Amino acid sequence: MRAFLRNYAEQHGRPHPHLWGLHSNDECLLLGPEQDRGIQTIRGQVSLFIRQMSLGYNLHRWVVIDDVDSFPHISQQALRRPMESYSHITRFLFVGTSEEDLIPALRSRCLHLKMNIVDIMACQSEFLAYIGMSRPQELTDEMWNWVMNLSSGNISDVVRLLTLIRDVRDIQHQPLTLTLVRTLCSAPFYMNFLPLLTAMAQRNIAQSIQCLITIWKKGYAYEDILESFQQINQLFGGTELKENILVHRFLIQAWVSYCKGNTSLLALQHVVYRILTEE
Fold it and tell me: Residues of the chain whose pLDDT is less than 50?
């Protein structure tokens, strides 16, 4: 994908072609899984981007959406009209593991290009070179297998974990050991959500809001928080009926809010406040 965008920029004489596909610019908007891709982003940031004046003959702006499998369907619905209305000046590039991840309305507007599946195990050196890992020989086969098992073959997760390992080692000047890799790659996610479950059970509004902010800063999206919180409640939730009803009311109202297009931290905080202040 990046090679394709760089080649386009070079052939059409666009500025800074070596940065295309790496960072968003005035002509290429990147939306990855680490960003907010809710319906408000589509209606706001994306709509403003594609409605700009044409760049000229045979020139297009690009909207690149990576990891389509985690791209909310409600956001995809909001893209139908913009894709149709601005197809003469804008191109959309969706990257995913299956075309079934796109809703039929978008799928019918796209040209599908199937590519060979990347053998992650066989491309270890390429991945390490891509993230700029210094002294890559220190990453043993056992460490690599640990990263592979945790990422479940998802390339974005592989890159994210390897980047995390690289940064921690370089910043803290720690030797690369199996213990370090396990610590970085296997911190149990429930440790982030147990404080929120406890605070909500105690109807502590301030603490619940603070826990949400902490979780959000760790990179969890709106729907990730709800799905993880639901799992935590099943594993560690209390047995009292009143407490279970409180948690389930929160989950139901939060999902309803999500279906209405609310994907921000503020929207989630509002649901928590409303649930905890109701009698």
Answer: none
Question: Model pTM?
Answer: 0.56
Residues 21 and 98 in one domain: yes
Domain coverage including residue 262: 190-277
Between CA 198 and CA 119 the distance in angstroms is: 43
Domain end position, chosen among 60, 75, 107: 107
Tokens of 233: 């409640």
d(CA 188, CA 273): 27
Residues 62 and 85 occupy one common structural domain:
yes
Q: How far apart are the C-alpha atoms of 35 and 264, rounded to whole Å? A: 11
Q: What is the pLDDT of residue 133?
A: 87
Radius of gyration of the chain (CA): 22
Q: Which of 185, 206, 233 is the last residue of a domain?
A: 185
Quick one: which H or E segment has residue 64? strand 61-65
Distance CA 213, CA 265 (A): 8
Nearest one of 70, 264, 38, 39 to 156, comparing CA atoms: 70
Q: How many domains does one find in the chain?
A: 3
